[in-house]
Amino acid sequence: MSRQRPRIASRVAVSPTKRLFDIAVAGFAILFLLPALVLIAFAVKLDSKGPVIFKQRRSGLNGRQFHIYKFRSMSVMEDGDVVSQAKATDLRVTRVGGILRRTSLDELPQFFNILKGDMSFVGPRPHALSHDKIFSEQVDNYELRFLAKPGLTGLAQVRGFRGEIRDACDIENRVQSDIEYIENWSFVKDVKIMLGTVRVVLGDDNAY
């Protein structure tokens, strides 16, 4: 059964507090981490052929498309009608890319997505467009995820629903967590999710 649009969704999308927090923290993080960003960029470039930054189309707030930024971690870059998920023994992952993916350092360029307003620090993680199409046919209310800006992290990730999506149950758990986040959003919850993300990243083996 389809669920109605969460009343609180408009607060998530237009909250000035959330946006100001995103701008301030993303701007500070970019300046503070600039030396690390440069070193990672050199490592990616020296390790394998291809661009330093990987760009892929994703759906954001209200389904508006944008290009998500990541440090390139694979030798093959996909952004078409078929995008293959990364797996634990994926031969496309480069040597440096494997380290970046396990530590989530490949996601650091998304600070620029946050600064631009395409993303927020906390929200539903955006999927490749081809995956959106598949998942929307598998999970009821999947489209409700687009009532908030996509996030660098989210409630689903803090709960351990990250990494490869192996079956319908995996994506259902993520979507239900995303909708729960939108329905019960508050700035305090955003802060708790960000703090929880640090713990998950340091102790999780699902990223590869």
Automatic annotation (TrEMBL):
One of its GO terms (cellular component) is membrane. One of its GO terms (molecular function) is undecaprenyl-phosphate glucose phosphotransferase activity. Its EC number is 2.7.8.6. InterPro entries: Bact_transf, EPS_sugar_tfrase. Its main location: membrane. It is a multi-pass membrane protein. The chain crosses the membrane at residues 20-44. It is found in: Membrane. Keywords: Exopolysaccharide synthesis, Membrane, Transferase, Transmembrane, Transmembrane helix. It is an enzyme of class 2 (transferase). One of its GO terms (biological process) is colanic acid biosynthetic process. Residues 18-202 form the Bacterial sugar transferase domain. Belongs to the bacterial sugar transferase family. PANTHER family: COLANIC BIOSYNTHESIS UDP-GLUCOSE LIPID CARRIER TRANSFERASE, UDP-GLUCOSE:UNDECAPRENYL-PHOSPHATE GLUCOSE-1-PHOSPHATE TRANSFERASE. This is Undecaprenyl-phosphate galactose phosphotransferase. It comes from Asticcacaulis excentricus (strain ATCC 15261 / DSM 4724 / KCTC 12464 / NCIMB 9791 / VKM B-1370 / CB 48). The lineage of its organism: Bacteria, Pseudomonadati, Pseudomonadota, Alphaproteobacteria, Caulobacterales.
